[in-house]
Amino acid sequence: MFSKTFHATHPDMMDSVTNDALRDRYLVSGMFVEGEVNLNYSHNERFVIGGAVPGAAGIRLPEQSEPASAKGHPFLERREMAAVNIGSEGAIVVDGERFAMKNKECLYIPMGSREVTFEGQGARFYLASLPAHKVCPIRHVTLDQANPLERGDLANSNHRTIYQLVIPGVCESAQLLLGLTVLEEGSVWNTMPPHLHDRRSEIYLYFDLPEAQDRVMHYMGEPDGMRHLVVANEEAVISPPWSIHMGSGTKKYAFIWAMGGENLDYTDMNVLDICQLK
Questions:
Q1: 198-212 confidence digits (pLDDT tens)
Q2: CA dihedral 143, 250, 197, 235 (to 10 degrees)
Q3: Cα torsion for 185, 170, 49, 200, to the nearest 10°?
Q4: Which domains does the chain have, with CATH numbers?
């Protein structure tokens, strides 16, 4: 049921990895295909990320099929999920309850949900799922209901608003933290200064790049041995706990950040000075 499985890696691997191998191990692409639910599995926190593009007909979140003994069990039997619409208006139906979803709106779908269907020509749903240990209320979160954090300024090319969507105080979850960051016109840097959080893994999905040729240079690796990936629109990067994560685009863009780990404290991070990076 998974398009690709990404294995957890040791930082020593960075010493000899080629650019192609780096992309193979951390870059997630091809998630948004019309008429399909496309899922990818990462052994970092047992994340599942993917896309659902309904097209003219609704499409359903598949049941488990791996391993064989899991066949017939709902995908969210022991998982929670957040779905963010990065396309035009659509809807998500969870066990018969329908939620209209506008652009950049999020639906938190709790553990134990049995049937999830995605609807809407032009809708594009980004999906992020983690194992869960408790059932939390289903919650539709708009940008107006999110917790906004304005950061940076135009003079430093990093004026942006961080919309915290699935976070304590906004939407209860078992271990998923998720939000959406939108850069202002003329700003291209995200997550500046960079940071580490050794108790959590994180995944960035970059989207809303204006033109087909636009790219984001995503920086990763240990602070004293940085590497980079060239990322296109609607591609994601898996960031292990030992890796920094920051990026700079050819134009403004947006990205969804999703985290999983042992705590729900957004501020649990080690902020680095840019002069520490090599």
A1: 888 999 999 999 999
A2: 70
A3: 100
A4: 2-276 (2.60.120.10)
